[in-house]
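Please fill in the sequence for the structure shown.

STRUCTURE ENCODING:
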């Protein structure tokens, strides 16, 4: 990928186009992580609706351990989202170019940790399975908050319920029969084709990422996390390297 393109994906100065390009890439990554993670620990870790419902069910059924596990997963996802908010605001206050790239780099590092933990699942499953689930929930919260902050909640990448709902709404508008062709009439219904396109792309990339993530995990095991982490590092590197270069220049100027 050209350096300018990569730098634009995660630069602090955002455009609608760069938001959508980054959203598409991260939707692909989220699909891969979610599908590969399920094969690893038999849990989908990006769906907080399901986890919250499971907590309610387990509470009524008296499954205390499962309730605590669900609460811990929910808290981990919240912690990931909160961490992104802290990193972005910390970097923004210092006018860093990589205010959004910090969270992506952290996600990449944590994915490598997930791979290392996963290699030991069979040896210490009672310890590492819960730890791995919490780690994946944290990563999903981290990533979802990145795109939410960047796009002002227009794009989500780790769960598709809202995306599919928006697609259904726009499809309903698209097939709606207007009795008049005058677009200025108060009740004229028009589909937002732009929104229809971006949500279709996000949904498609999430699915493709899931297929590739599942295939890669079956073929490579936990080593499949390495290419995904590398992609995230490549995305995050350009603005962070620029920040380090500027920091080095500042230190040189301040030296006696």
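FILLED IN BY: designer on duty
SEQUENCE:
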């Amino acid at each position: 990928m050209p350096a300018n393109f990569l730098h634009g994906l995660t630069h602090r100065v955002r455009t609608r186009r760069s938001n959508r390009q980054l959203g598409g890439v991260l939707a692909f990554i989220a699909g891969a992580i979610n599908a590969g993670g399920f094969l690893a620990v038999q849990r989908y870790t990006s769906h907080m609706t399901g986890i919250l419902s499971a907590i309610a069910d387990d509470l009524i059924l008296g499954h205390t351990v499962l309730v605590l596990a669900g609460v811990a997963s929910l808290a981990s996802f919240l912690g990931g989202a909160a961490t992104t908010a802290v990193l972005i605001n910390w970097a923004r206050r210092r006018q860093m170019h990589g205010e959004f790239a910090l969270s992506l780099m952290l996600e990449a590092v944590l994915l490598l940790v997930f791979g290392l933990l996963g290699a030991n699942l069979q040896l210490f499953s009672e310890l590492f399975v819960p730890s791995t689930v919490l780690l994946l929930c944290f990563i999903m919260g981290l990533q979802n908050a990145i795109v939410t902050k960047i796009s002002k909640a227009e794009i989500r990448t780790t769960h598709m319920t809202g995306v599919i709902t928006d697609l259904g709404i726009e499809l309903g508008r698209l097939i709606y029969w207007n009795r008049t062709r005058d677009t200025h009439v108060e009740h004229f219904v028009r589909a937002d084709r732009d929104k229809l396109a971006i949500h279709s792309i996000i949904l498609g990339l999430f699915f493709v990422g899931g297929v590739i993530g599942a295939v890669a995990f079956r073929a490579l095991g936990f080593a499949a996390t390495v290419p995904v982490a590398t992609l995230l590092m490549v995305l995050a590197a350009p603005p962070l390297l620029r920040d380090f270069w500027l920091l080095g220049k500042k230190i040189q100027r301040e030296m006696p």
